[in-house]
2-polyprenyl-6-methoxyphenol hydroxylase-like FAD-dependent oxidoreductase (Mycoplana azooxidifex), 376 residues
Amino acid sequence: MVSRADCSILIAGAGPVGLALALELARRGIKPRIVAETDGPVAENESRALGVNARTLMLLGPSGAASDISAQALPIEGLKLSSLGAPLLTVNTAGFRGPGPALSILPQGATERLLLERLRALEVEPEWHTRVNRIDGTPDAPEVTLVRNDDSGETVRPTMLVGADGAHSTVRKACGFAFPGDALDNEFFLADYAYDAPVDVRHARVEFFNPGVLACIPVRANVLRYISTMGDFEDRIVHPRPNAELTWRSKFTVSFRHVETMSVGRVFLAGDAAHIHSPIGARGMNLGIEDACWLAWLISEGREAEYSKLRLPAVRGVLRQTRMLTAMATMDRPASLALRDRILPLMAHLRFAERALVRSIAGMDTPNPPWLSVAS
């Protein structure tokens, strides 16, 4: 086992996953080096990830980041689903008992800045404009060449290398991790609208158009995000107030992929570098932060070799769940649509089904972190 006192850890990527890993290591007395090709945190008005679930708040509690997030985030009271204007199901999360709301909304850029503040307080600063150019050596003794924007560079030999560098991970590709999976044919569209006064942000809403879906997610007290599978979705939006201002528009595709192992030798992967899936369910960033916190604890305990074995079951479970939810949102066969519209209202009468949904929304359907006390 590598001595923790002599352990040098290089983290590639300073998004929420890399920052959470660095923070969890630093508060345990292991100061990592963290590099990122970007010039800083993602812009708040272009943050794809919005949801912060209760599991993430639990994990970030000891560092103090959870209280920072809770002070700025919008708590969501539930999810309302309807079909062609007719209510199907309301999932109430307001009664969830746990480390904060089941789900809160805070743009990824804001979450990154709060993590960064906590990290700086522990005297760790990401090295921006610095990318992993190549990786030589072996997985047990990686040699990493770093290049900066001014073309200066260096080769380092960390005790451990962590790829938290996103879906197109250089670390994953350079170290030969397989990334099997498939992509959906559907295109998804996104638009953020700002209003001249606060609007109702208590619930997320999903409207099925049979076929097609339009979801509305709060971003700020006066900003709503609309996500749809329909190219003309903006013509279908019923704005809560006049004078809506479009602040951001984008589109994306969805893939379901995960590595077959999350570590090889002294090289580890976390977050989107290890697994990608649909944003439905708001699990992506949260699952990555969960990876980071587990890895930091295992490293501090000298048990990092157990990382892949402990994390892959949770990853597979979340991918199965998000695939199922995405299939429900994108189905287009009349018989399937009719069946969905009949089954969803029945779930309101099944207490166990609602509890399971709320636990999933809260992210509490993955293994409890053994280093924290968790109320039953």
Remarks:
- The domain at 4-362 is CATH 3.50.50.60 (FAD/NAD(P)-binding domain).
- Residues 40 and 128 are 6 Å apart (CA to CA).
- The chain is about 30% helix and 30% strand.
